[in-house]
Amino acid sequence: MEGSGEHGETSKGPLSKGVSRGLCILDLIFRVIAVIGTLASAIAMGTTNQTMPFFTQFVQFKERYSDLPTLTFFVVANSIASAYLIISLPLSIVHIIRSRAKYSRLILIFFDVAMLALVTAAASAGAAIVYLAHNGNVSANWFAICQQFDSFCERISGSLIGSFAAMVVLILLILLSAVALARR
Amino acid sequence: MEGSGEHGETSKGPLSKGVSRGLCILDLIFRVIAVIGTLASAIAMGTTNQTMPFFTQFVQFKERYSDLPTLTFFVVANSIASAYLIISLPLSIVHIIRSRAKYSRLILIFFDVAMLALVTAAASAGAAIVYLAHNGNVSANWFAICQQFDSFCERISGSLIGSFAAMVVLILLILLSAVALARR
Lengths: 184, 184
Prior knowledge:
The first copy, chain A, is mostly helical. Chain A has helices at 14-46, 69-97, 103-135, 150-183, and strands at 49-51, 62-64. Chain A has one domain (34-183). In chain A, strands 1-2 form a two-stranded antiparallel sheet. The radius of gyration of chain A is 22 Å and the shape is elongated. At the A-B interface, α3 and α4 of A face α3 and α4 of B. Chains A, B: Homodimer and heterodimers. Chains A, B: Belongs to the Casparian strip membrane proteins (CASP) family.
């Protein structure tokens, strides 16, 4: 609010402008972290499969991520989020230079919120399935498959981390954009 | 940006001010819808149980929502979101009167985003479990329990609707707040 009596780029003091630029650079860093998180999750999950070695050549037990539809959704959602985040990087760089942009920030908030919902949905649906794989469920007669497929289970559990990290970073990104809008 | 040369409540034209007030009233309406959605979901899921009538008095098959930990999380998350949304209603009313508020809007965005993550997580984890209950999974040897517990399954499927609706409304709420911040 202070010094908002003028139009244009020069309406804020140098300190305030520096803080605004700092927020924009933080935005860029967070976006890169989120790209890494979602991409790592998608790749780690997408390359997961385990074949049981001790069965005959006729009956082979093999578990792939695509046997569980929820894990397929996890891979697709994380890939989409990662692609969007890479596309949004140039816009984030533009914001560092033009820190008073309004409409482009609103567009970024819109898509960031949508991607937050997508990544959160993927991460938590994945977590629900991974939990079942580890613990099973007595009343529904679903057995824990992790006793047979231990490396498969470790892998799908690990790939959740990147997705949950991306979720937290996306929340911070939305808040950063909101603060930047409020400071204009 | 237009007419931003003055401080205080009177800096915008009457039309622009009317639009701002309209956005705030929309915010209030959306919040009420989200309260109804999350509350209905929590209650519908929280009261779900089914006892199979055709078993003996010694062995009774009963399925309750709390047998599946994910569904318990669903109830808790929707209750928390619904409680937060009710608490946020007065602040939303204050925004109708004082449409240039900045910090209270930022606080609302912060909690709205957190609640969006919570509701999305609950809805999608619930959906993953409901999908399994309906379809089972061949490779993991998880059987579809909906063949035995049909009314249980209908109930838990139905209670997802309110949660997903609340998710969409929360996304719109965050966007409304962002637009309101940008229009200040």
